[in-house]
Amino acid sequence: MKPHIAFLPSPGMGHIIPLFQLAKRLVIQNGFHVSFLVNTTKASAAQHHFFNSAAALIPDLNIINLPPADISTVINQDMRIVTQICVMNRESIKSLKPILAELNPISLIIDIFTTDAIDACKELSIPVYSFFTASTVLLTFSLYLPTLDREVEGEFVDLPMPIEIPGCRAMRTVDILDQVKDRKNAEYDWYLFHVSRLRYVAGIFLNSWEVLDFDRVKTLKENPFYRKIPIPPVFPIGPLIKEDETLTEIDAEIFAWLDNQPCESVLFICLGSGGTLSSKQLIELAWGLEMSKQRFVFVVRKPTDASASGSYFTSGGNENDPSTYLPDGFVEKTRGIGLVVSSWAPQLAVLRHFSTGAFLSHCGWNSTLESLVHGVPIIAWPLYAEQRMNATMLVEEVKVAVKVEAEEGEEVIGRRTVERVVREVMEGEKGKGMRHRAKELGKSAAKALGIGGSSIESLNRVVDIWKSQV
Ligand code: UDP
């Protein structure tokens, strides 16, 4: 009999994609049977598209939609994004127990915000594994958070010194994730709730590999602080990223254009599934790009001054014509040099295209991995969540990125700063060095996932446990 594993991701492509990749791997490489449980409450167009295409035809990988929950009285638009996700998950997970009881998998794999499932699984004696889809930097911080919560009074952002995370580099308070910057907000309680429950799972999968996170993985395994919590075993099994994308007719136009550009000459600009700029910032970015005279593919979303994650639940939907909110004259002035794409682009295929030379990214973890796997250096434009700590790591430790930041006194990142950084990365020596290091990392990622590679060996340790249970 095939071992049967169930998955339960949170909504949002950044959660769904890596869990789905692991599911696929278990089915195709390891001969498992998988039930992939989908939270259908408030699903984005990108999510619908994903499950209608990528997921459709894999035998032994069954997509099971959880019944949409009635969230009309428990969610309002004033709630921050993580609160909305967590409330939606909690409501959807109420229907989980009978579904799991019937499926009877040998394990459930959850993500960071679906730990509510642990209770149902405990009652059903189903072991739970967590796939921590964000960076290992965030995991080390998150596992330290319950201690910080006990020991620090007031806001962490007001601490006079960087935060000393056991066995890790000290973290500047500006870099901590948004969800813990305001301890009075419900988002903080939700985040703390979920990370505090990580200790109850049987193991934590990391979407990383030994070369990228050697010191941090060693710290998680060996540092007395983490041993004392104690945390479950950690398994670096990445980088698991999308392997392919279904291309639309509009996408075909992007590739027709890219095919005609010189090798590594194009900057790809895309701020994740939810990243959205203010009107003022969008204008500065656009003119900075134009002034840099570099080729580009620019994924543009309707600006909003309300929230940097404004498109999280709407990404991939039909939007207005971008020329209505790009500055007047921009499209005409950059015709032939750049391509504007509305709302959503096939990111992976763009990153792996020969003419892509750099990626202006919000540094979400999936985007970061996709860039590194394809040897593409990064212009880091962090917006929300844990993106600032990812950006700092990529700039200061891994040295594959440069951060673009507003000058002192500037409300937004100005066009001259954009122009300077874009040129530096696309034309300068700094860009060459970053590109070289990104390519080396890309090779090490392929090795980690090849036969006998560190990530495969790591996953096989758990696969063997599962196989022994059937
Ligand atoms: N993505 C894409 N096209 C877009 C925007 C995003 O294909 O126009 C994909 C991207 O390739 C990545 C995911 O959406 O796999 C975004 O995940 P990430 O963790 O980088 O950021 P998040 O959206 O969770 O902030």
Short descriptors:
2 domains, binds uridine-5'-diphosphate, 13 strands, Rossmann fold, transferase, alpha/beta, EC 2.4.1.-, 470 residues, seven-stranded parallel β-sheet, single chain, globular
Describe this structure in a few short sentences.
With 470 residues, the chain is α/β, with parallel strands linked by helices. It has helices at residues 13-28, 45-53, 81-93, 96-103, 117-124, 136-151, 186-196, 210-222, 224-228, 249-259, 279-292, 330-333, 347-351, 365-373, 387-397, 415-427, 429-448, 454-467, and strands spanning 4-8, 33-39, 61-66, 107-110, 128-132, 203-206, 234-236, 266-270, 295-300, 338-342, 356-361, 378-380, 401-403. Uridine-5'-diphosphate binds at residues 12-14, 17, 242, 270, 272-274, 299, 344-348, 364-367, 370.
Give the integer mean of the pLDDT values: 94
Rg estimate, integer Å = 22 Å
Spatial order of strands in the largest sheet: 3-2-1-4-5-6-7
Domain module tally: 2
> What can be said about the biggest beta sheet?
7 strands, parallel
The CATH architecture of the largest domain: 3-Layer(aba) Sandwich
Helix share, percent:
40-55%
GO molecular function: glycosyltransferase activity
Keywords: Glycosyltransferase, Transferase
EC number: 2.4.1.-
Protein name: Glycosyltransferase
Task: Report what the structure shows.
It is built from 18 helices and 13 strands. The protein folds into 2 domains: 4-238 and 451-468, Glycogen Phosphorylase B (Rossmann fold), CATH 3.40.50.2000; 249-445, 3-Layer(aba) Sandwich (Rossmann fold). β12 (378-380), α15 and β13 form a beta-alpha-beta unit. The longest helix is centred in the C-terminal third of the chain and has 20 residues, at 429-448. It is globular, with a radius of gyration of 22 Å. With 470 residues, it is an alpha/beta fold. The structure holds uridine-5'-diphosphate (UDP). Uridine-5'-diphosphate is lined by residues 12-14, 17, 242, 270, 272-274, 299, 344-348, 364-367, 370.
